[in-house]
From TrEMBL:
GO terms for molecular function: nucleic acid binding; peptidase activity. SUPFAM superfamilies: Ribonuclease H-like. This is Retrovirus-related Pol polyprotein from transposon TNT 1-94. Keywords: Hydrolase, Protease. PROSITE patterns: INTEGRASE. The keyword Ion transport does not apply. Residues 177-345 form the Integrase catalytic domain. InterPro entries: GAG-pre-integrase_dom, Integrase_cat-core, PolX-like_BBD, Retrotran_Ty1/copia-like, RNaseH-like_sf, RNaseH_sf, SH3_retrovirus. One of its GO terms (biological process) is DNA integration. It comes from Araneus ventricosus. The keyword Protease applies. Pfam families: gag_pre-integrs, Pol_BBD, SH3_retrovirus.
Amino acid sequence: MTSYRKYFLGFKEFPSPKPVYVGNNNAIMAYGQGTVNVDMKVNGKWVSNHLSEVWYVPDVSRNLFSVSQTLAKGFVFRAEGNECSFTRDGHVRLRGIRTVNGLYALKMRVVCPEVPAEVCFASADQSLQLWHEILCHQNKTYVKEFLDQRGIEVCESKVSCEGCLYGKQQRGRFHERPSRPIVTEALIHADVCGPMQEISIGGSRYFVCFKDVFSRFRRVFFMESKSEVSNCLKVFLSEAKTAGHTIKEFLSDGGGEFKNSQVCGMLQSCGINIRYSMPYTPEQNGAPERENRTIVEAARSILHHKGLPLKLWAEAVNTAVYVLNRTGPTREKEKTPIELWSASSFNVRYLKVFGTKCFVHVPKQRRQKLDPKSVAGFFVGYCGEKDGYRVWLKKQNKIILSRDVIFENEASYSVIAQNGKSCSVVNEPSVDHGSEIELIRSSDVPDSDVCQEIGEASCDAIGSKESSDEQERNLRDRSMLKKPARYDNCVLLAEHAEPDT
């Protein structure tokens, strides 16, 4: 090592100064290394040679030669009496003589180059890199301005700081996103959300959301495990085909639930282009990531607003998607996602507040003579467009589907028709298979929107209440009615007595 800049023929700066510990255990800094040309005296003759990896240490008091580094390069060191030598391949390459203070002075002289290497370093306290480290790795531009204001001159340094790379490295900027699709079905995003902290009533822990980018139409499926994604995708593609849509491109993350032979084979057989985002890069799949956040936040809000248990999270998610599809914004003003996806309209007056207490009519087939004709529950979702409501019965811990529901603080029945089958009780295992569909069943066929059950009776009796009122107004005068002829030979007696039970 040397403190002379003019010695260097070639020079390479260290990324950060390296400490060199001297005899008093103090550290002096080395700022780079390079090549120095020398002449060595061997057997009375001067031989030209060079030293590589010579460190530039401004504070070192004299030129030092490392024996250990020389031995590492295959030399043999011998010291006999007052002389020493370095030998390699059986030939003496360098000799030295012992001085008074115990050090060996090598028979070597430096040959300074005509054009010395540019070494832009000041003393240790003037190094920008050193001050950068002293000031806890603040931005070098600011460090230089800070020191200039206080009269401390430092050299410019473009060397990258290894410590900053470990502690501050940021991800690269993302390019502008490609142009959005201008028609439905051009691009479908997909993402899985879960596991949830509590199992739903139907036994689900996850849900997968498929979203059309143009219309913003969502379709959710609820699953016990991620391995069910392929079955959900199969159902979604079938529904899209039935609705007249041909999916052109499918984008998801590279998770194993999407990146497997079953899903890839299904998409390729349909001629759908597959795109995966890079590992740990959710920004490339940002739309479904943000969509899941929107859905979960809506579900969380409606659950906690009414103080309902977390096991109803699937019903809350299902309801949130149902409402978002019918009221959410799209790129076309005055049109909702469901209108762009299936060209169907919707009356917002049909919507109710999630978790509202309600009363469900119990059909006569399911009650005895003196049993109550209504059972109390909580509204937790919809069945189709106007087919009925999903109601959670707290005591029985089950969900029923009904067309005849009176909501608390409402004076009349809902717009659901009163004719036909009025209530169908759903057993626990199949509750979430309507809302949390796993496989298509003949008794639980979802519509083209969110997973829902549709009752057996049709729902085209809007205004049935008005028609019944009209019939009541048109009844004949009761005083003009005559008894049937079959009662002419009968006598009716009324006896005042307590009923015998």
